[in-house]
Amino acid sequence: MSEKVCVGAIAGAFGVRGDVRLKSFTANPKDIAEYAPLETEDGGQSFSVKITRQIKNGLAARLSGITTKEAADALRGTQLYVPRDRLPSLPDDEFYHADLIGLTVTDTGGATLGKVVSVINNGADDLLELSAPGQKQSVLLPFTKAAVPTVDLSQGRIVADPPEGLFS
After folding, report:
1. Is residue 69 included in any domain, yes or no?
2. How many domains does the chain have?
3. Whole-number Å distance between alpha carbons of 163 and 159
4. Pairwise CA distance, residues 141 & 161, whole Å
5. Average pLDDT of the residues in 35-61
6. Is position 148 within any domain?
7. How far is CA 108 from CA 95, 125, 130, 142, 156, in A?
8. Which member of 4, 11, 127, 137 lies 3.0 to 4.6 Å from 21 by CB, making a disulfide possible if both were Cys?
9. Backbone angles phi, psi at 156, to 5 degrees
10. Average pLDDT across the chain, whole number
11. Which domain holds residue 42?
């Protein structure tokens, strides 16, 4: 499990006073401010966050130290992280996406199906994007109890019962 978890990203400036467009990856988008200070991946910059309002496709926010549109625009694309220990514990059947990436996926017989390269939220259910041996393209595995009966973070593995024809 990684030491830091990405909780959001800066999509650019919002207005002319240094506010930013903030994409939140938290379950409740406004909760991102509760985890502040947020920092860049390398830890080089750290920001306190004040949500000013909800906007289309995200939030408008004021970050400490950012006072101009140019400074806000310079941060476009910056991902924001928090140390894992600041995040709440999850119930047994919920997982942080960061914990799933890199896990080996096997079928119920133990044969390797691939490794998780990303978790995609399509609005209904999450999908695990797998890099599968012998496949030219990624395979998208539904992240449901039926298709993924076991996630064992301590062993670094996922046991899947994929829908018929997914890996053929």
Report:
1. yes
2. 2
3. 13
4. 10
5. 93
6. yes
7. 21, 21, 16, 15, 15
8. 11
9. 65, 40
10. 90
11. 4-84
Question: Please, are residues 35 and 41 in contact by the beta-carbon 8 Å criterion?
Answer: no
**Residue 113 has which token pair?**
């199906």
Read off the amino acid at residue 59.
L
Task: Kindly state the average pLDDT of the residues 14-28.
Answer: 91
The pair of three-digit structure tokens given for residue 46, joined into one six-digit string: 């750290």
End-to-end, the C-alpha distance of the chain in Å comes to: 31
Sequence-ordered alpha helix ranges (H) in the chain: 69-74, 97-100
Q: What is the mean pLDDT of residues 141-155?
A: 91
Residue 151 near residue 160, CB atoms below 8 Å? no
* Other residues' Cβ atoms within 10 Å of the Cβ of residue 111: 8
CATH number for the domain that contains residue 120: 2.30.30.240
Helices (H) and strands (E) in the chain, counts: 2, 13
pLDDT tens for 107-139 read 999 989 999 999 987 767 889 999 988 888 899
Residue count of the chain: 168
Q: Is 167 helix (H, G, I), strand (E, B) or coil?
A: coil
Question: Tokens representing 45?
Answer: 């910059």
Check whether residue 114 and residue 153 sit in a common domain. Answer: yes
Question: Are the C-beta atoms of 149 and 141 separated by less than 8 Å?
Answer: no
